[in-house]
């Protein structure tokens, strides 16, 4: 590539990342409501500033978490494996997914987080003491966002969404992910690590040799609120078909639309697929996520305002428990919402799949007859 004058250089990914909506929560309510609505429709993802969540609690969780992850493996393992709460290392979920990280999964319901971690380990009990205050604040923030969405969508009942999260039985989850620093040595020794020296406009979308911290997936819940330290790696997949790296900013919170929100809005919002590539820093990345979920028995189906004769319902009613079970029975990247489509799509082999499996042929025939 020839040398270009600086004003003509277009770092495409930096460009795309700068278009990702950043919403200032202290602005006028009706403006914020419209901005959130647009962001959920166009990206399924946005960043929040002036969100009002105290940095003091975040710093305490960060400090406790770093102390925990610095302990010897044998000690950390006493708090694992995560079933469903506790310490996990490299293994993600139950279906053989792995990533270059270690993590803590905790109950995200403020009233029971400490109680549930008590029998697991002393370390977890200490961390959950600080986490309970944070999840309380994040539950409040998630409810505010959902009320703003309800206003933007002109829903008859403006609390219909936030009630799902406010439920005392809410099945919210809290997670801290710790990505070890990238060892710089292989870059020199192993040409496969070319990613580090590549231009920013090609790296996220072309690279195949990068280190996967947390593989591509969508979150099954309603909304996820993510906060990280100043180490990058997080990317989300835009509706235009590009991976967009999000520059880390500890003062911002990232909001991610989950599968349940997609179903509630009858696909007006799409859950955002995202991943973490942990290959760019010699510092560890520490991220914390609050996954806002309803109670296990909550019934999910598209909101009546999202359905019309032009927009027929895309999902059969299901409970959050059923979707959660489906998520855990599939791989991390699985499209679990497809299992609840009111009219399953016809199966077609992709070019690599070649031969048509007789079972799928029979399935397609049945679908065509319905
Ligand atoms: C492979 C998996 C890990 C996961 C459960 C699943 O079977 C599919 C969804 C994954 C996910 C993504 C968002 C959250 O991090 C998480 C806790 C969740 O609710 O769904 C994880 C699950 C996990 O790590 O256990
Ligand atoms: O660690 C991160 O930054 C994101 C992880 C994530 O997407 C998840 O835990 O579901
Ligand atoms: Fe996620």
TrEMBL record:
It catalyses: gibberellin A1 + 2-oxoglutarate + O2 = gibberellin A8 + succinate + CO2. Residues 169-294 form the Fe2OG dioxygenase domain. It comes from the Eukaryota. It comes from Heracleum sosnowskyi. PROSITE patterns: FE2OG_OXY (PS51471). InterPro entries: DIOX_N, IPNS-like_FE2OG_OXY, IPNS-like_sf, Iron_ascorbate_oxido_reductase, Oxoglu/Fe-dep_dioxygenase_dom. Belongs to the iron/ascorbate-dependent oxidoreductase family. GA2OX subfamily. This is gibberellin 2beta-dioxygenase. Pfam families: 2OG-FeII_Oxy, DIOX_N. The lineage of its organism: Eukaryota, Viridiplantae, Streptophyta, Embryophyta, Tracheophyta. Keywords: Dioxygenase, Iron, Metal-binding, Oxidoreductase. GO terms for biological process: gibberellin metabolic process. Its EC number is 1.14.11.13. PANTHER family: 2-OXOGLUTARATE (2OG) AND FE(II)-DEPENDENT OXYGENASE SUPERFAMILY PROTEIN-RELATED.
